Amino acid sequence: MAERLQGIFTPMLVPLDERDRVNEAELRRFIRWLLDKGVHGLYPNGSTGEFTRLTVEERRLIVKITCQEAAGRAPVLAGAAEANARETIAACELYQSYGARAVAIVSPIYYRLSPESVYMYFREIALHSPIDVTLYNIPLFASPIDLNTIRRLSELERIVGIKDSSGDVAFMMRMIAAIRPHRPDFTFLTGWDCVLVPMMLAGADGGTNAASNVVPELLRRLYDLFRAGQLAEAMQLQFRILELFDMMLNHFEFPDGFRAGAEMRGFQFGRGRQPQSASQKADRAALKRVLQCLLADTGIVGPPESGCAARSGELWPAVKPPKAPEPDAWDAPRDRVEQIVLEVMETLRRRGMIG
After folding, report:
1. Tell me, what DSSP letter sits at residue 269?
2. Virtual CA dihedral for 191, 23, 68, 105, nearest 10 degrees?
3. What is the pLDDT along the chain (355 residues), one digit of tens a residue?
4. CA-closest candidate to residue 216, choices 144, 265, 152
5. Residue-wise over 65-104: b if at least 16 C-beta within 10 A, else e?
6. Alpha helices in the chain (DSSP H)
7. CA distance 266 to 30
8. Which residues are 187's β-sheet partners?
């Protein structure tokens, strides 16, 4: 039986050069860095890697490079979703020849399908794929995979797990309760970084976490703390990752916040393929400064030359406060992110960039 998929998998960003081509040399350097920082696995062609904005040839190239660089050091979970089942099966065959451990396949996008159609799509792939398949549930972008459909698909031997990006802890618990009794080998991964510890407490095996493009060592440490039973320490780090994740996800055009963060670690990712207006570029520059301050607070990077706002209070008073706080106790030390964002917004107002 193949080794179970578990731990921290990085849904890899893709660097582009000045001619808008995949920057192969920088991609290889980035992959080696991720492995050196301790991620358990690599996940090319995921949502964070903007697979829908890549050509078929580029997606194949990225998986090939990833498998070459992984070279047995870590498993590769390759995104293999294409426009239809036939082309997806062809991608499965190719990625298996490259040396990928398994493929991740998102539910069909654009057309909203019924649960029965979602089941038949994955069944067709599972019956013809030469490589293990993990389901990818991301209701924000694709037809959702409901619990009964996941249970039915788990009866197919080739389907070995699911990556769930709903962020719903209760849904994860329901999946595990329904499937693990008859498929103890089935892998459950979360794609929602800010609830990684709660998901693992529920029984998840790890995650495919966008923030690991930026702070792979923190995600690996969080995972190790959890596995060592140091839950209080793991939760303190989880709140730190929550702060970073929310900033990179909610204040930039996805996945540009993660690109901005990875650039601060010394990589050149170039411009994304989504065009941006002048005002968006100005906003990005200001937000990138805020993000750098958050990263500097972890000690991973230095602060911007202009410095960071004074920040009062703790990231979280305690994992479990000993008693209920007074009504104003939680408001006294303003939230760290809010402090910095308010400062930047005021700067933008003074410059006339926002109303």
Report:
1. -
2. 30
3. 578 899 999 999 999 999 999 999 999 999 999 999 999 999 999 999 999 999 999 999 999 999 999 998 999 999 999 999 999 999 999 999 999 999 999 998 888 899 999 999 999 999 999 999 999 999 988 899 999 999 999 999 999 999 999 999 999 999 999 999 999 999 999 999 999 999 999 999 999 999 999 999 999 999 999 999 999 999 999 999 999 999 999 888 899 999 999 999 999 999 888 888 888 888 888 888 888 888 888 888 888 888 887 665 455 444 444 444 444 433 434 455 555 555 555 455 545 555 5
4. 265
5. bbbebbeeebbbbbbbbbeebeebbebbebbbebbbbbbb
6. 24-36, 56-70, 85-98, 115-128, 147-153, 169-179, 196-202, 216-227, 231-250, 256-263, 278-296, 336-350
7. 9
8. 161
How far is Cα 324 from Cα 259, in angstroms, rounded to an integer? 39
Q: Which amino acid is at 351?
A: R
Distances (CA, A) of 170 to 159, 174, 234, 296: 22, 6, 20, 34
Domains of the chain and CATH, by start: 7-240 (3.20.20.70), 278-350 (no CATH)
State the DSSP code for 22: B
Q: Which two tokens stand for residue 288?
A: 């990138």
Question: How far is CA 57 from its chain centroid?
Answer: 23
Using alpha carbons, select from 172, 177, 169, 164 the residue that is nearest to residue 135: 164
Count CA atoms closer than 13 A to 62's CA, side-chain side: 31
Other C-beta atoms closer than 10 Å to the C-beta of 323 total: 5
In this structure, the number of other CB atoms found within 10 A of the CB of residue 319 comes to 13
Rounded Cα distance between 135 and 163, Å, is 6
